[in-house]
Amino acid sequence: MVTATAGFENTLKELGLGEGWRWDKGSWWFEPAEHIDVRDTTEYMRKLEARFIAITAMERPDKEIRLDYQWDLNGQLLSFVTATRDHQIPTIADLSPAADWVERETHEYFAVEFTGRESTKPLMTRAGDAIGINLHKDKEVAK
Description:
The chain contains 3 helices and 7 strands, in the order αββαββββαβ. It is α/β, with parallel strands linked by helices.
């Protein structure tokens, strides 16, 4: 089993996962200046036999959505950080079926459009609920 050591950073480079990884709070993080091609990353992680775990989302000050894609590679948690553009990002659910539910949930709670999906059938919301219910919307303060 691979351990969380400086040596694992070399392993990440050798696997073709680039430089610039940092170890923080139990996970290896990759946060490049440019957007990550999530489909290419998914294809590569599948070749390495990594297991998709989750996508976490958070609204940024510019109103785009930060997305952290988490993968398990030989017992190590790898987190790839990227963001939407115009609230859109390509789907990976067709490449990694485990992403289906979390993409649907992220769509409902953060209004992210996962391009290339056949459907974003409701998962958590009820009929009549607004899409993007977790977004920080400017609200009028009652006087």
